[in-house]
Amino acid sequence: QVQPAESGGGVVQAGDSLTLSCSVSGGTFVGDDMVAWYRQAPGKEREVIGTITWDAGSRHYADSMRGRFTIHRNYHENRAWLHMNGLPPEDTSIYYCNIQRDSLVSWGQGTQVTVSS
Q: Three-state SS for 40?
């Protein structure tokens, strides 16, 4: 079973940008994989940010996430990325990636992003 691994979280100041990474622990992405980014703030439900297909690089974003979030992937680095601009304190969350492969969805452990005001 594929195991996603997120990295890049930390504490940033309001207005900063941050890029998170999603990789496959002990493995690689394959052509039909779809990577999704989610986040979950304290006391709130997990919400989708957007998705990207590994092979074609086709991206889709939740309407509420358009503008400040960009998802992309890099074949050579074998990683998918979530770039976030102009972070407000309300973006403090645990950020997760999941990988859909062969109709199975696998979740990473998440990476904490804290935005201080």
A: strand
Residue 93 token pair: 């969350």
- For 8-39, the pLDDT digits (tens) are 999 999 999 999 999 999 999 998 999 999 99
Count CB atoms within 10 A of the CB of residue 46: 13
E-assigned strand segments in the chain: 4-7, 10-13, 18-24, 34-40, 47-53, 59-61, 69-74, 79-84, 93-101, 104-107, 111-116
Pick from 10, 21, 13, 5: nearest CA to 89: 13
pLDDT in tens, 105-116: 999 999 999 999
CA distance 93 to 55: 29
Q: Which two tokens stand for residue 24?
A: 């496959």
In angstroms, rounded to a whole number, what is the distance separating the alpha carbons of residues 62 and 76? 27
- Give the pLDDT confidence of 51-84 residue by residue, as tens digits: 999 999 999 999 999 888 999 999 899 999 999 9
